Amino acid sequence: MVAMPVDQAEIRREAVERTDRALERLLPPVTQVPASIHGAMRHSVFAGGKRLRPMLAMEAARTINALHSGPGSKNQLPDGIEDLGAAIEMLHTYSLIHDDLPALDNDDLRRGKPTCHVAFGEAIAILAGDALQTLAYQTLASMRCSAQRAIKIIGLIAEATGTVEGMIGGQVLDLEGEHTKPTSESVTAIHRAKTGALIRVSIVSGGVYAGANDDDVRRLTEFGTKAGLAFQIIDDVLDMTQDSEHLGKTAGKDVASDKATWPAIFGIEASRRDAIRLINEAFAALEPWGDAAEGLRAVARYLVERTH
Amino acid sequence: MVAMPVDQAEIRREAVERTDRALERLLPPVTQVPASIHGAMRHSVFAGGKRLRPMLAMEAARTINALHSGPGSKNQLPDGIEDLGAAIEMLHTYSLIHDDLPALDNDDLRRGKPTCHVAFGEAIAILAGDALQTLAYQTLASMRCSAQRAIKIIGLIAEATGTVEGMIGGQVLDLEGEHTKPTSESVTAIHRAKTGALIRVSIVSGGVYAGANDDDVRRLTEFGTKAGLAFQIIDDVLDMTQDSEHLGKTAGKDVASDKATWPAIFGIEASRRDAIRLINEAFAALEPWGDAAEGLRAVARYLVERTH
User: Fold this and answer.
1) Does A8-305 carry CATH code 3.40.50.720?
2) Cross-chain CB nearest to A103 (options B33, B126, B166)
3) B130-141 burial, b for 16+ CB within 10 Å, e for fewer?
4) For the whole model, what pTM was predicted?
5) pLDDT tens across A197-255, in order?
6) Chain A residues with CB inside 8 Å of B152's CB?
7) Model ipTM value
């Protein structure tokens, strides 16, 4: 295969632009009745998210496309992939809105803006989170891939965001683990479920959208599992080392509430080393794909090199 | 067509039994980690719901089956239909859990039991509602019908439970309308969205599961729209005329909070007459189907004749 130069900044710019355009089209306008909830949904969805998960879905799709299609389609994104990314971003945003509620993490600041319940009240914030989950599935049911692929993607995403080793299960473990001493086992279980599962499924579902076979799905799953854990370790390190203004959310909250984090157990330097080791292990899973996976590698590098 | 005797009590018994068995199989056991959320989900799902929506889905499917299949399949339910009913019941239950939260209706009693947040705390109740929505879509993605039918059903259900003339939109209108004088237009809009849309889509999706064509869907939609409004009018009447013990929820709350209800505008007797008129109009939509629709009619009759 010919070496393909990959521009990380260009990949990020394209993913943000395509995802934002899809979200703009898919979310009801603020003028649509009832206006308050549409305002609340848009407030949180357009609060400056980095669109990491859509970016991963897109690069996984680009990789599988390059592997299975003719040389002409190399470096191309499959038609309509931005709707998958937008749906995943809606699910991510709904989980943040509910996580920030007074009954859960009680956070006032998110991405440098007031959280949804601070801006719109608790009732609307609860319903806006609900509605983003609903709209995500409505979006997934209208994707431009085959019904077979869409149903498979919906099943995988629902599982990854559910209670059994999925996102909601991770939130419960995290809540119940507060103020008890974290162990490396408990932290790994929480990270794997709370943030890891959605990152992994972003990658896998992007691949399925583009026609991944069973072997592809296995490699993407291994890559996504390692990359997801590395992402969360860096997130925990940033929470301890950056100030709130730079992070766009309340820094140091993990320590303040005795949250189970990687650096709390292993220290900051060892955590950074673990994240780099995990990314290298993730890369090993993609080895046989050579240059076709360069975009996916570039995004994984960004996950651990980012500063906020 | 030969007249087919229909036993309303038998239809209800079968629907409750099949739905409960499916829910028992689909919900994670309380022993599954994290146990608290699975306990909370089961607490609300198995609180003695009447399974009206699954019953409507089943009878719509039986009707379409009878119309389009050979005489041998008459009176048969399509294979796996109970999973569709169970998914709809999960969605209904999630909306009740969130509606009962302190930030929304702040209700302590539901179906004669403590509401989810009273029994398990607010954080777990919020997440249990979220998880029931997630599990509903996971269930819909694994149904035993074709991928084409499943995707169509998921799109219809997401739309009917969303913000634009769907369930969540109705909850927002209801919240925002409290303590302002209801009009017949505002009450109709709230009822149509808040409870009507899910009842309508229960009927339509049951039909789609069994292979309804476009004309069938139009008839089921008209039937479902009228029957859904009749159901809610009777619900409002029961709230005003029954005591809490009989209803299994706090009675008289609508009046106490100036909720937009039908009897508040038209009075109780006129409301009862309107409900009966609507059911007769609903029946007119099914006229060409003759006896094949008898089960569906029996359930619609039950919607307005029930006493709790």
Assistant:
1) no
2) B126
3) bbbbbbbbbbbb
4) 0.95
5) 999 999 999 999 999 999 999 999 999 999 999 999 999 999 888 876 666 666 667 66
6) 141
7) 0.95
